[in-house]
Amino acid sequence: MPKAKWYAVRVGRRPGVYANWSEAENQVRGYPGALHKSFPDPRAAEGWVRAGQRHNPVITTTSLYRQSSKQLITDEDLELDTSPAEIKQRNSPAVLLKQRMDSLLTTEIKPCPAVEDPPLSAQQEEILCRILNGENYFFTGSAGTGKSVLLRAIIKAFRQREADERNDKEDKWKRYLSGEDRNGQGNEVKRWKLGVTASTGMAGVNIGGSTVHSWAGIGLGELPAQKLYENILRNKITAKRWKSTGALIIDEVSMIDSKLFDKLEFIARKIRKTEKPFGGIQLILSGDFFQLPPVTKGHINNCSFAFEALSWSKVIPRENMTSLTRVFRQKENRFVDILESMRKGFIKPQDVEVLRGLARDVKYPEGIEPIGLYPQKAEVAAINSARLEALETPLQIFSSFDVPGTNSHGWALDSRQATECLNRNTIWPQDLELKVGALVMLVTNMQDGVLVNGSTGTVVDFMTLSEASAVNIHPAAGNYGSAPDPKVAWPVVEFIPSKHASGKVAKRVVVPQMSVDVLNAAGRAEATRHQIPLILAWALTIHKSQGQTLERVKIDLNNIFVEGQTYVAISRAVSLDTLQLLNFSAHKVMAHSRVIEWAKPFEQEQKDEEEWDELLAGANFDF
Ligand SMILES: Nc1ncnc2c1ncn2[C@@H]1O[C@H](COP(=O)(O)OP(=O)(O)OP(=O)(O)O)[C@@H](O)[C@H]1O
After folding, report:
1. Which of 36, 42, 361, 401 gives a 20 to 30 Å CA spacing to 516?
2. Based on the domain organization, do 309 and 387 belong to the same domain?
3. What is the C-alpha to C-alpha distance for residues 204 and 83, in angstroms, rounded to an integer?
4. What is the mean pLDDT of residues 409-417?
5. What is the pTM of this model?
6. Would the keyword NADP be found if you checked this record's keyword annotation (predicted)?
């Protein structure tokens, strides 16, 4: 006798236990993120379905395709008379996206505004100019000196140049075709193709680029350089990218090790058939070697830095390395001075006292807690889940909807690969668990730069867009990708107004589902995640905080394990007043000795030059 089976559907059109597969299949076929399992015992099956919803009296999801369990599901919804093939067709992401795009929303949603950056300083301008002149360049500087702002300005200027050249080319063709100009065929215009990359996926997403590994088509980059080169030759798209690129940006170059840097340089020369450094590609590097070091297999101290690569000095001449000197993030001189010496692994006894004194509780005016920074992933997960558990309000789970695209080799990803790619490269969560009272951090920029990546707030309610609109709470303007589901109750968040943002902050906003892309080297989506751009913020790893400005921050240095970590964590804060620092001691201030040695002459030389310039500027030559 065949063994009896019960089919449990935890996530699907109608969760429940079904006696035969065809019924269960109707619930899960074509339903993104569906979860089902078979059991020999119906009670076990029911228990499994309920376990998934135990803390979840109302499952609301951001997914375009899941229904809120608040709604009644009719037989029509179940499409019982429809063949699975038709259901699949109807529920295909493209069709559903279109339907949702077409669904009318009464609330006005503005498109995502570009981040509004401050005007560049004279030093930033000068570097931009030299880079636009075609020079290879490495710019560094302490945390908060505007490296990211400068990088965005560089990308913008290159994009503008690309657009101008496209227009030029089109004009030339038009003139050629009309017989006006028989010589100019449009082909001779030099292409300024820019590759935008970073050493890590998250840094790549932040600048609208990809990882340098993905751009270069080298996987983890562990094979010998010659083998990597041969592999690239086998993929026409990747080989063409190497050949046609005019300039390449690598952000957070401090997290690339010397071997990888040399391999890239070797590949560039081989593939472009020239002995020019880096195959003649203009290289634009940014990063701070005093922050987090490269992640190397084995012991963390085995790392070798990009500046130790054999090819570094050939690619970046000494006079093309600049350290940005003005710190913008912190305004207090005392704090800036402490950070400056801490960056180099040194701390004065009187500063130790100042930092130890920061162990006190800080009372903030709006009562919103600070973001917690911790060195290790495990403690972050434990703290967030314990704090969430402690809230007595109902749990809401929002699951992402991940859409696969194509990778840098031109191959299509499947949905599992898309989800893995998004988990690896973005901070946007696959499953976001929220309750009223949860401390959250925004992971994208919104509302004309008022609410920014790093803004913190508390979830105060869950509302549909129309419920919110009725009480004058509006959705945050962001990159929606598709219109948010008007039936889903989205989190309403009360944000702390950011001192760094200009404009008036709508303190309470609804934060609906938005979208984030992980881009491939061609600038197209490798994978797209539709999700609410929030993460729990009682705790965040120091690694994930790199690059951010945090208005209120509490740091626990208990488990610090690598050079640069203490400096990265403390330099996220904007002032000593809004910083709580636990378990600080002088020996936790660590900088890598090889970085100190390398940077000393070049930063000192620059300091001497600046002092000399200041002296000359103040001098009176009127004698
Ligand atoms: N020229 C400028 N004028 C005024 N503010 C600036 C300028 N450049 C940068 N800032 C501000 O300084 C802060 C830090 O800038 P940014 O994030 O670019 O620094 P960073 O060097 O990349 O820092 P980190 O190394 O920590 O990632 C931001 O709030 C930014 O808006």
Report:
1. 36
2. no
3. 43
4. 85
5. 0.74
6. no
